[in-house]
Specification:
Number of strands: 21
Number of domains: 3
Number of helices: 5
Mean pLDDT: 80
Low-confidence stretches: 1-21, 275-281
Radius of gyration: 23 Å
Order of helices and strands: HEEEHEEHHEEEEEEEEHEEEEEEEE
Strand order of the largest sheet: 6-7-8-9-10-11-12-13
Helix content: 10-25%
Structural class: mainly beta
Length: about 375
């Protein structure tokens, strides 16, 4: 798409269309949700879901809006948080300019009905093509462009036609009130699916859930709860309907929200996991906990804590530099005992975006923890 360099001159010479002040974008995206997978300390894959309109040539022609997703491999560590921040805003993100947009120009825009593959495109993420005209939305400079109006109308119609098509994360945000679940659902469950996948899911009375599979872990909320049936909506766009039959639960799993409820679900059987409380490090909590978290206490303390696989925790500050962590399910907390004899706790369930906690046995200052992507 090097011809974009000539576009302003050609348009000015022939008056074919109104010139773009400061260059013309290559793509517009209304972002529904963003998925990432992490390899050690860096992002190994980013998948952006939403409505897309991309330039077809060096003129002003854009393709018809497409409901789907694009996917890249490594390289998005700095820009993934930007994409995640604009998800659900219903605004058009501007990608690229007259100088091009790198791999955004050629990456496949998959239809939303196409199931993603974990070993799909591994094209390195092309950095430097966002915020070329100010913020992610170019300060609204192109909102009156015909192609942008068409894209926004398309995204709006898509959401009205299928409220869940905006993504499970959007559904949860539009239904912020937790739906408490029946006591018979509370606890940790092992789910065996007909396709051979095993899942561990933990439900909390207040209506939150944590799901862990070999290649997946996600937080969720009870969107609908009634006697004997619970519908769980997860942040990674999965939906599950749990129906209790005797001591077991029949689980219907939809891989994406746009398939719910008319699509054929993957069926599974859930059985309650054995015992376990106190300091037992359950798989679900452990998966989320491991890694770095930014910590802010109400006494203005700010630092970074790293939770290690061996049960130790390191602090970036000059205070208690090291300690040990344990998971106490009975008290719904992660307890951190520092080598200085001080202690802190994080409240369960853990939420990577915002987890509460406090000091233990001192001034009881409250804290907030946010996981580092």
């Amino acid at each position: 798409m090097k011809k974009f360099l000539l576009a302003p001159l050609i348009l000015a010479a022939f008056g074919a269309a109104t010139a773009f002040a400061g260059g013309r974008p290559v793509m517009y995206v209304v972002v529904d949700r963003v998925e990432t997978t992490q390899d050690q300390s860096s992002i190994s894959m980013i998948r952006i879901w939403g409505s897309f309109s991309r330039a077809k040539n060096a003129w002003s022609d854009f393709c018809k809006p497409i409901d789907g997703y694009i996917q890249f491999g490594t390289g998005s560590d700095k820009e993934a948080p930007k994409w995640q921040k604009v998800a659900g805003t219903k605004k058009a993100v501007i990608v690229g300019c007259c100088a091009g947009a790198g791999a955004f120009e050629t990456v496949v825009i998959h239809p939303a009905t196409e199931k993603p593959k974990d070993d799909g495109e591994n094209i390195p993420y092309p950095t430097g093509h966002l915020e070329r005209f100010g913020d992610m939305f170019g300060r609204g400079r192109d909102d009156d462009r015909p192609e942008v109006k068409t894209l926004l109308a398309f995204a709006s119609a898509k959401e009205k036609g299928c409220p869940l098509c905006g993504g499970a994360a959007s559904t949860v945000s539009n239904n912020p009130g937790l739906q408490p679940v029946d006591d018979t659902f509370v606890g940790r469950w092992n789910v065996e699916y007909a396709n051979g996948v095993a899942e561990t899911c933990e439900l909390v009375k207040e209506g939150t859930a944590t799901s862990v599979e070999p290649k997946r872990n996600s937080l969720g909320k009870a969107r609908n709860a009634m006697k004997g049936v619970v519908v769980l909506v997860f942040d990674d766009d999965r939906i599950e309907r749990w129906t209790r039959i005797g001591q077991r639960i029949v689980v219907e799993h939809w891989p994406s929200s746009n398939q719910f409820p008319s699509g054929s679900p993957i069926l599974g059987i859930a059985e309650r996991a054995g015992g376990g409380g106190g300091d037992e490090m359950t798989l679900a909590v452990r998966k989320i906990l491991l890694g770095k978290w930014k910590i802010a206490l109400e006494n203005d303390y700010k630092g970074e804590w790293k939770f290690n696989v061996d049960g130790t925790v390191d602090s970036s500050t000059n205070g208690a530099k090291a300690g040990k962590w344990t998971i106490d399910l009975s008290r719904k907390q992660v307890l951190i005992k520092w080598n200085s004899d001080a202690a802190d706790k994080l409240d369960l369930p853990l939420d990577p975006k915002s987890t509460t906690g406090s000091q233990v046995g001192r001034n009881n200052y409250k804290l907030e923890a946010v996981k580092v992507p």
